[in-house]
Amino acid sequence: MDIYSFISSNDVAAHCRETGKTWNTFEMAIIIGRSDRTREEKHAAWRELIGNYPDMPTPGNRFGNIHQKLESIMSIEERELELFKTPGPGVFYKYNICEDDDGCWSESTYQCFEDAFEAASGSLKSGEAPTIEIEKVFAETDDDSPDVTATARVDLCGNIELVWICGSQEGRAKMFPGTAIDGIDFYFTYVDIPVPFKRGDILKGGFRDSIFVLGSLDSDDPERLARLVAFSEGYNYGTEGWGYYVNENGCLYGDHISGNDTYEYYKGKLEGNDRLLHYVSLYFKDEIEIASLLNMQCRIMMEHQLNNNFNIDSHGCYIPENLRAE
Q1: Potential cystine with 232: which of 42, 108, 215, 237 (Cβ 3.0-4.6 Å)?
Q2: Number of domains in the chain
Q3: From CA 141, how far away is CA 97, in angstroms rounded?
Q4: Do 167 and 218 fall into the same domain?
Q5: Where do runs of H (alpha helix) occur along the chain?
Q6: Residue at 313 is within a domain
Q7: pLDDT per position as a tens digit, 65-121
Q8: Sequence-ordered list of residues with C-beta below 8 angstroms from that of 165, at least 6 positions apart, any chain
Q9: Are 167 and 262 part of one and the same domain?
Q10: Residue 136 sits in the same domain as residue 221
Q11: Among 134, 157, 175, which residue terminates a domain?
């Protein structure tokens, strides 16, 4: 199995491949589970693990042996998918085309999943590759209405990548019986996935998928990392870093960045306030002094102020567009 291909970041995958990093069966199952592949692809990979890689207990035997746990997860997810795509009375579907976290749910509703996906596909413009979401909605009735909705993320071929169900436990038990999983949180179970990144690198990624300058990684401090993993028993700790972003006003701030295996080197052009990240990177790499960094921040913030907040068209000082200098 090419386990490296399941790592979200091409840069991280290449680094692990070059260094010959390997993982045990449980760790490979986690990497597959947290990948952005479709459910069908994940299930195929898990079945390959079960068929070709040795069984082993999950850490602390919390979920029994990994082969049996994967079989259970796949069985439940297949039932969940079947129920999601099953139409019925009082049920309708709608779609959302979202790109860069923006989107709008369709005003029209559809009687089945296939019709909603066909309508979503037909609304796309040539060359677009956004995220398609299909929601299954249970209409309210006068009697015992189910308090639950289910949403699927779908690729452009109609393959469901992910289903998440929201609502009360009672609603889920009624509309999606037998699908409650007491299972592994693939996104917050620790696996050692080495990354090539260093302090001062300009990256993009994390669950926010934003541009940032890397400040530190938990793996930079092995003792701290060991304490975090031991404290959480590995089951509610996902790899993290600390990075620096620029907000809409040009101010620099720091924040946690989960999902180290999603980071990639940012290769685009820094524009607007994000230009500050170039100088932050230079400062962290000891190529400029603090005074130079602060001077450039002042310049970028003043440019932003002039371009966006310095009012030249208010009452008493209005200049028509055709009389303004280029």
Answers
A1: 237
A2: 3
A3: 28
A4: no
A5: 10-19, 25-33, 39-52, 66-84, 113-122, 169-175, 222-232, 276-284, 290-308
A6: no
A7: 999 999 999 998 899 899 999 998 888 999 988 765 555 777 889 999 999 999 988
A8: 80, 148, 149, 150, 172, 176, 179
A9: no
A10: no
A11: 175
Q: Distance from CA of residue 40 to its chain's centroid? A: 19
Domain that holds residue 262: 202-308
Among the listed ranges 135-149, 238-252, 274-288, which one has the minimum average pLDDT value? 135-149
Please state, as a whole number, how many other Cβ atoms lie within 10 Å of the Cβ of residue 264.
16
Statement to judge: residues 156 and 213 lie in one domain:
no
> Residue 116 is which amino acid?
A
Alpha carbons 66 and 46: distance in angstroms, whole number: 10
Within this chain, do residues 138 and 59 fall inside the same structural domain, yes or no?
no
* In-domain check, residue 252: yes
Residues 240, 298 within the same domain: yes
Report DSSP state, residue 126: T
Residue 58 and residue 96 in one domain: no
HSE-CB at 229 with a 13 A cutoff on CA atoms is 15
For the cut 70, the answer to whether the pLDDT of residue 141 exceeds it is no
- Of the listed ranges 235-244, 257-266, 269-278, 317-326, the least confidently predicted one is 317-326
Q: Is the CB of residue 238 less than 8 Å from the CB of residue 253? A: no
End-to-end CA distance of the chain: 60
> Any idea what the Cα angle at residue 194 is, between residues 191 and 196, rounded to 5°?
155
Tell me, what's the pLDDT at 143?
57
